[in-house]
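Comment on this:
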Amino acid sequence: MREYFLAEKMKNRHTYLQKLMVLMPAAVVCLSVWLATDYFMIDSYNWWYMVLFPSMVALVGASVGNRDKKMGNRTIRVLPVKMGAVWDAKVLYGIQCMGIALLVFLGMTLAVGTWLEHIQQVFPINPSVGEQLLAVVVLFVTSLWQIPFCLLLQQLMGVFPMLLLHMGSYTLLSVELALHPFFMALPGGITARLMCIILKILPNGLVAEPGNVTFTQELLEWRGLPVGIAASALWFVLLWRAGRKWFERQVER
């Protein structure tokens, strides 16, 4: 598997991915400081997991999936390789890119948040370092499904339809499905629900407290955390296997 992964890494060595993993987290942190300093913590995390992070994951899927597809997969058909392993390498490389971007985001948010506190800035909510670490870990785990999902959509319909479908459906599901007891029924609503529990931020960007629109006490119940993580892991496995089977049949026929 190491050889497959390194080959996938080399294919994307001179693409925009390396810059994307830094620029996207930097963009959301800078916008949060510039537009709403008082709500830096809320906006930084909310804008990240609701908009810019899924957008970045979709772009990662577009880049990784398009390396071979734009040449009709001829570059891998002629090689003595296992097509299932090629798909696995694409997924794993996408996951690595996603993890790096999350670490960059966490480091920038902690650094800027510490600086703002040093100049006596007061936030409506101020998650501890431990809560932010937990939030990023949960965000990573509950977003794994997006990599095989975006890769599969990119193979089926192309880059731009995939971007539109993924972002449109994700935004709707995050805002609406996350507020219901059956939030785990589709993976798009899981992350936003779990961020309510960990960071006390509603999908609409408001503080999760009585009196704010869409708030209910159920959104803060910690029992939703293991349920959401387990459901996300299941969705990831299902989408990975479905994409792998489709890719093997598509390339080998």
Remarks:
- Residues 57 and 146 are 7 Å apart (CA to CA).
- The mean pLDDT is 87.
- The chain is about 70% helix and 0% strand.
